[in-house]
Structures are given as structure tokens and as C-alpha cells.
Design goal:
Chain lengths: ~280, ~425
Amino acid sequence: MARFAGVDSGSWNTKAVVIDDAGHVLGTSVVRSGADLTVAAERAYAEALAAAGCAAADVSAVWSTGFGRNAVPFANGSRTELDCHGRGAAFHVQGPLVVIDIGGQDAKVIRIDANGQRLSHRMNRKCAAGTGSFLDEIALRLGIDTAALDPLAAGATEELELSSFCTVFAGTELLTLIRSGRRPADLAMAAYRSLMKRVIAMDVFEGRVVATGGVVAHHPTMVTLLSEATGTDVIVPPHPQEMGAFGAALAARDGAVSVGPGSVPATPRTTTPTDADDGD
Amino acid sequence: MAEARTELRSTAALRDTMSAYYKTLGDAVTTKSAPVAWCTSVGPAELLRALGFAVHFPENHAAMLGAGRTANKYLPVAHAQGYSQDICSYLTSDVGAYLAGESPLSAFGLTGVPRADVLVFNTNQCRDVRDWFEWYGRQWNAPVVGINSPRSVGDVTDAEVDDVTAQLEALVPVLESVAGVRLDGGRLAAAMKSAREASELWERCLHTAANKPSPFTFFDGTIHMGPAVVLRGAPEAAAYYHVLLAELEERVRGGVQAVPGETLRLYWDGMPVWGRLRALSTTFAEFHTAVVASTYCNSWIFSMLDPADPWRSMARASVELFIARSDGPKERYIERMVELYDVDGIVFHDCRTCPNNTNTRYGMPRRLSDKLGIPTLVLDGDVNDLRCFSDEQARTNIEGFVEQLSDARTHASRVTR
């Protein structure tokens, strides 16, 4: 049995997955990325190998993805998280489909055709609203752990609105609502609704919708809200938080073309427009 | 190992040409050898040259601040004056630099931006250029005059050309008064002829990128367009583009690639990100992707300029400008460019502080993608304010786009095999 692995070096967590040649997941792990992405990648990979009951020598190829994909020195190739989340989702769900990935630092919407080919992608702008960081900020304002937000929202009875585009402004808005005596459960639900609205504004959702990433893995309320908003039962595949790493493992298995600098030699540039040159 | 890029020899001539221009500008200030006019980049430069003005283009100056990555030092200075961080970062960085008493023109012997005797705007680009010039006009008690051009123009009408023609003619008495000379029709025709000649040569330089592989990229163009901008109406611009064109044609004959191993070709719409020119150029090159053409560099092609009909042809150039048009003509233009340069995809820069040169906000990328059957990518950024640009997000977006294009090509070849 051949084995392949993927490592997703994300902004908050580093995920690793080991699969067999049929795409069955043999082992996974999630560790904090911290300040040293390479150390986190090594740890995540070691833990995934242990969970799979195999050694690195048993793995035919390891590919990396995520914003720290170039900080995984043992990777044989890399693909962006745009590719890997789409690839992983398309393994589980026949296209055409739309993949929503909500991570700690960004949100992505990826459109996949019937052949599993990526048609387009959209990423949120340089802003925390619409990402997992938004939920962290709201939990902080409510004085609870982020993990406690979802069970809290389950008790919501009143529909409140957080209308601000900006995470900082939303936090201020939240304080105003707290002062006006609103219930924490309703505020927690309002935060999820705000996040959902940012995400569904990124694209048009037609056909099957698949959700991946740490937010949907740990906040089922988001899946419910996304399903209501898109008018379809949003599909959450197995291991949603590790979907990027799973996609990277599939890329390793499939021998995808790595366009990243890990496999394409950097082009020496003896001449380019110099940044100090003139222009208009 | 990828092949190294080779130097464009013309860069030395470019530096000489630009240095001579800045020196002339400095001389005009220090020796009073000529009155100084400020002109927006697509303002009536030919008219100003015919009247003997030394012409300063503040957008060129602002781009220098961006390219030198000093803009962000100056932006807060202008913001503190009540000029919002949401308006043109060319304006705010330029005004901030003035208030800080600093300028990259010091490298050419000037003490700062040249003090204007008159400032001449054309709002065919945006309203910000007028606000920009009026700020300086108040500082120096200098006259601010210009053209209020129609915006969002569909099919250009005679009425619109008549309107701008009349506004151009109305500038003459004011400018003659500042210059202290009467307008000479022969000098105007000569300036028009120079501008037309340089425009034709610049267009031919850009069109060399239609070759596969391309000898020239958008990133090269943003630098080599300097003379087309600041020397419009002067013979030095055409002289430089003869040199550049000869080298580019030599590259085409010799098969010299601007991006070694070119496999993908893209079109760029929107402003450059001046402070990240090299980084973006390098990133695309790493992916063997040549950004071969752009709306931006093409915007200094003024094929309609006619020395025999100076007023109406200047007006037509102003009204027909891409940035002044509605989405219909803009889309038809980009469609022609996609076909001419045979590109695999289009990159749109959503420039945070330049809505007028951003074509992403009313659905154009998706319309063009649907119509042309090629993917589009939107990069968030800014022309000068690097706080609006994320290196990592841009890189992931570009790399993801390249993956998508490469996979589509591989898939298509498997299907047709």
C-alpha cells in the first residue's frame, strides 16, 4: 500500500494528513502554528504519521499547502490552499460545486466544475471580518472561550444584527448591545450571522455547496446558517479542518504540477524594472 | 534551471532621457528660463509645450514616491490635513511629501517639486486631480485652470468633443498671460507632431509583446513609459522610443524572452502597485507567466492626435481615453486586447484609493470571463498605499490563478488527446 501525506501550514493551526493510494485517511493531526512554521509542520507530520501507524520512510510523497507552504522543507511539492481545499472537497463530492473554506485568517470561495477543475476563486479582502479571527474577537468581548460560542448561540431566541463591516466596529457594536441588556446567547448568534453574511456575499452559490475549514469544524451553527442562506444543505465532508492537508496529500498522490518555488527554480533576475525607477 | 532575464540596453538611454527632463525642469525653476506649468498626465501637455512652459507631471512624481516606497511615510501628513485615506494616494503622498519638504527629485538637483506658475488639470481621469492642483494653487496663490471632461462616456459624440474643444480653446488667454507669449500655431502643430510620433512608436513597442514569447512585459512598460508621460509633445520622447523599439524588435528576431520559459500570458487592468513592482514582476516570472499587456501602459497611446486639427484632435484624445469611458466601451477595448495579445487570463487590480482606475466593482471581471471564456483574477491593493496590499494574499492569489490556468491547459490536452 502506497501512502501519501499533506501538510497545511495555516495561520493559526498546522494540519497534517496521511492517506493511502485510495484516498482513505490513515492519520491526522492539528497543532498550533506558533511562530516557527517549520517546527509546527514537523510536529504535525510526526503526529499524523504516528496516528497512521507508519514512518516517514513509508510515505511516497509529502506535499504542503497553506500560507506557510514554503516553510515545510521536507515537502516534495506544494499547491495553494485554493487548490487543496477544492481538490479535497471534490474528492468527496461530485462537481459542479462551490467550496466555502473559512479559516482563521481568511475565507475562500472556490468554484469547481463537473470534472473537478477549478473555475474561479475568491478570497476575502485584507480584513478579519468574515474569518475565524472575527469569532475570536467576539468571544473575547463576551468574556468566553471561542469554543463556548457555539453552545451559547444554541440558546438564542432573539434575532439581533451586527451591521458593521469592520471587526473592531462590530466589537464596539457588541458592547452597545451588551449595555442595552441583550442576552449573550443572542449576541453569539448575531456574530455567526454577521460572519455568514460576509461569506455569502463573496460569490453566487448554485448547486452543491461544501464547507471546509476550522470554523465549520468547530462551529456547527455556521453550517446551519450557511445552509439557510444558500437554500441548500451545505455538505461538510469528513475532516473539514484538515481538508487542505487532505487535498495536499491527494495532490501528492495524483502527481499534480507544483507551480510553487519548491519545484520551479526561482528565476534569476538580472534586469527588472527597479522599484526606484521612474514611472507615472 | 530557469534562464536569467537579460537587461534591456535601452534602460541606460531611458535614464539619460528622464534625467535630462528633470534637469530641464530644475533649470526652469532656478534660472527662470521658462515658466512652469503643472499638468495632469493626460492633460493638454502639447498646448503647454507650444507656449514654452516647462511641464511638471505630479502623477509621475507620486509614482516615484510609490516606487521608492516612501509614500507611506508621507500619507499620514496629508491625512492630518483632512485629506482622507480613502482618496487618491497619489494626491495624499505627494502633498504629504511637499509638507515634509522632501522629494525624490532631489536626486536630479531639484530642491522639491517645482513651484508652479499655473496648474492645468483635466478631470477625464478623476476629480482628485483637480483637488490636488487646487491644494497647490492655494499654497502658491497660483492660477488653477483646466478641462472638466465628460465622464463615463459611451459612444463619443460630437457634442462631447465640441465641449472639450471649447474648454481647451478657452484656456489659451489664461496660459498666454502666464507664459507672456502668444500661442504660435506652428509650435502647437510641432508639439502635436512630436506627441503623435512618440505615441505611434510607444504603441509599436507595446505591440511587440503580441509576439510569443513576448520580449516585453507590463512591468517593463511601467518604467519605459516615462518619456511618453513626461515628454509628451517634445521630440525627446520619440527619440527614446526609436531606441527602445529597435531593441525590442531585435529581441523578437532573436527570440529573447522577457520571462524565460514563458508558458502563460496575462493582461493587467488597473493601476500598478508601485511599491511592489519588482516583487510582483518576480512572482509572475517564477511562475513562467508573462503579463504581456495592460490598459495602463496603453493609456498613453494617442492615435487620434492630428497636427492638422489640433484642437478637436486633442479634445477627442481626452474624451476617448479609456478611463473616461463607460463599462461598455471599456469591455470592448479589453476584449480586443485579449485577442491581440492572445492571453490566458486577466488580472484586475482593485486599487483601494483609485476607484476611477478600478474596473472590478461593477461586475466587469465576471462579465468578461463569461463572455471570453477565460478566467479573471482580482488582486486587492493600492497604487501607493502599501497598507492596502498584502504580499502573502497577493502571492497566494497569483499562485492559485497560475495553478488553475495550468491545470485547465493540462486537462484540455488530455481531453483532446
